[in-house]
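Colleagues,

For the teaching module next term, I've prepared a clean inverse folding example: a structure given as tokens, and then the sequence designed for it. I'd like students to try predicting residues themselves before seeing the answer, so please don't circulate the second half yet.
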């Protein structure tokens, strides 16, 4: 798997490193299980070509696919969805349109 398609590397402690397209060079470590759960749901829900989904549509589309164990009642799923979207966008696996409202779509099949 190429570095571009590689998921954020695990630090061996149940955490992964994520990037933020809006803050190049900034990396944070987050819970790997929650990251992977949201990543799988987001990749499943985002279309493969523009126009894509708005932020609100994206967050609503992901929720039904998340585990109640990790996200009881959908708690913090919006924050996690945005975090994963920004990370995948930094890795150029997700792109945004230049329209208003912004919309996101997959740039490559997983």
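(Answer key — instructors only)
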């Amino acid at each position: 798997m190429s570095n571009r398609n590689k998921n954020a590397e695990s630090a061996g402690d149940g955490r992964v490193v994520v990037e933020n397209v809006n803050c190049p060079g900034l990396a944070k470590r987050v819970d790997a299980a929650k990251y992977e759960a949201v990543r799988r749901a987001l990749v499943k829900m985002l279309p493969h070509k523009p126009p894509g989904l708005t932020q609100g549509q994206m967050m609503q589309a992901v929720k039904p696919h998340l585990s109640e164990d990790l996200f009881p009642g959908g708690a913090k799923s919006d924050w996690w969805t945005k975090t994963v979207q920004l990370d995948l966008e930094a890795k150029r696996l997700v792109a945004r349109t230049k329209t208003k409202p912004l919309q996101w779509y997959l740039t490559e099949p997983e």
